[in-house]
Each structure stands twice: as structure tokens, then as C-alpha cells.
Specification:
Blueprint lengths: L1 E3 L2 E2 L3 E2 L5 E3 L8 E7 L10 H6 L23 E3 L5 E3 L5 E3 L6 E2 L2 E2 L5 E7 L8 H17 L4 E4 H4 L13 H10 L1
Parallel strand pairs: 3-7, 5-11, 5-12, 6-11
Antiparallel strand pairs: 1-2, 4-8, 6-7, 9-10
Helix pairs in contact: 2-4
């Protein structure tokens, strides 16, 4: 349930400047699952939040150098403990998908919601993430005409691998059915 336009109740809202208007009349029908950790393989901290708000210091860690000047965001970040952050209101286009294509349609940012899971391709995701992701998707389906869910690797094959082979799709679909 939104507490203000496009912001979900229960999410900590941190406004990202990395968003813009969706094309007029565009229905939001796709949810894209991503994974992220900064520095890679490290969880917690505020580096992802800083990246999505253009405050990440590229000198703070060697792995951040390649992110200098990058302007990206996602609608949501789901922490390993189940905490939910929202960076972009639902009605706006977050810059999460990049060059992408889904079932013949390009520019996936136009018609999708981006959800980042705190994690990586190389590690299992945490139990609270599966539960909270199911609850999140149910809430989003009550507000939007979401019909499809894809991995970032599905919409950008060869370019992206997240959320990775260790994301347990079967388990998550079971959680979704229970939510």
C-alpha cells in the first residue's frame, strides 16, 4: 500500500536522482530481478545506497573506480535481512536494466520495476530475502499490471549474469504462492 504517490509502505525511501518519466501510456508489466553487492561479495554498509544516489566515492575501494560517473538506480533494494529500501517511485522509470530486451521489446526500463537483491552470483541468497521478495511482488501486483518476472540475465544475455545460478527460483515461487 503506498504511503505517498508511488512509495510503498514498509520501505525506507531514499530518493535517487537517476530516474525519469516513463513514456506516456506505458503499462508496467515486467519485474526484473538483479543482485548487487559493493564491494563485490560484501554485504551491509551504505555503498549501494551511495551508488544509487550518486554519492559513491570511487577512491573508497579499488572496485569502485570503474563505477565513477555511473548513473544507475533501481526501484528497490532488498537487504539480506529482509529490509526494503526504495529509491524510485513506481510511476517513474528507474535506470536499472541498461541495454535490454524482453520478448521482442527493447528498453526494458520503460515498462519494468527493478528489484536489487543484496547478493552476488557466487553466494546463496538469505532466507528473509525470499520471504520479503514474495510479499513485495504481491504488493506490486495489487498496484500494477505486472504479468512477467525476469532475471537481469534474461533481458541482457551475454552482458549480465545476475541474480545468478544460486538464486533458487523454485523456492521463491513457492514463497510467492504462500504470500
Amino acid at each position: 500500500m503506498p504511503r505517498r504517490r508511488g512509495v510503498l509502505q514498509g520501505a525506507r525511501f531514499v530518493a535517487s536522482p537517476n530516474c525519469d518519466a516513463r513514456p506516456p501510456g506505458t503499462a508496467v508489466t515486467l519485474l526484473v530481478l538483479h543482485s548487487i553487492s559493493l564491494p563485490p561479495g560484501h554485504y551491509g554498509g551504505d555503498a549501494v545506497e551511495r551508488l544509487f544516489t550518486n554519492r559513491l566515492d570511487p577512491a573508497a575501494h579499488a572496485s569502485f573506480r570503474s563505477l565513477a560517473g555511473l548513473r544507475v538506480s533501481s526501484h528497490f533494494l532488498l537487504r539480506r535481512d529482509g529490509a526494503l529500501l526504495q529509491f524510485v517511485p513506481l510511476q517513474l522509470r528507474a535506470w536499472h536494466a541498461g541495454l535490454s530486451r524482453w520478448r521482442g521489446r527493447g528498453r526494458c526500463n520503460d515498462f519494468s520495476i527493478g528489484v536489487e537483491l543484496e547478493g552476488s552470483d557466487a553466494a546463496a541468497f538469505a532466507d528473509p530475502q525470499y520471504v520479503r521478495l514474495a510479499v513485495l511482488v504481491r504488493a506490486l501486483r495489487a498496484l500494477l499490471p505486472l504479468r512477467e518476472i525476469a532475471a537481469h540475465s534474461d533481458i541482457a544475455p551475454g552482458r549480465k549474469t545476475d541474480p545468478g545460478r544460486l538464486f533458487d527460483w523454485s523456492r521463491w515461487l513457492r514463497e510467492l504462492a504462500r504470500a
